[in-house]
Design brief:
single chain, alpha/beta, 4-stranded mixed β-sheet, two-stranded antiparallel sheet, 3 helices
Length: about 100
């Protein structure tokens, strides 16, 4: 079962830093859940921070291989700062057992 927090940007390639920080706070909460159940049925949960924008094409995830990430950055004209921000966010996700996805809505 996926526990998804979504953040969207209408005008930029990435949601605002404030929105991303809010999403990270929720990922901290979601990753610390021990028992997720619906009507007494236990589920294994996977927290996902979903970032979307109308200004990009394709989709990548924190578990995407580096060559796929590099192609995505090129195809969407990400600058160095944007790439570094996303790479650090992906590293945070891997280290803390959640997934970050980035794609078009």
């Amino acid at each position: 079962m996926h526990l998804i927090e979504s953040k969207h940007s209408k005008n930029g390639k990435l949601p605002s830093v404030g929105d991303v920080k809010d999403g990270l706070l929720k990922m901290m909460l979601y990753t610390n859940l021990e028992n997720v159940s619906i009507e007494d049925n236990l589920f294994v949960s996977l927290p996902v921070l979903r970032l979307t924008s109308e200004k990009i094409t394709g989709e990548i995830h924190s578990n995407s291989p580096q060559n796929v990430r590099e192609e995505f950055w090129r195809d969407n004209n990400f600058n160095k700062r944007q790439r570094e921000f996303m790479d650090s966010l992906f590293a945070e996700a891997i280290e803390n057992n959640f997934v970050v996805s980035l794609g078009k809505i």
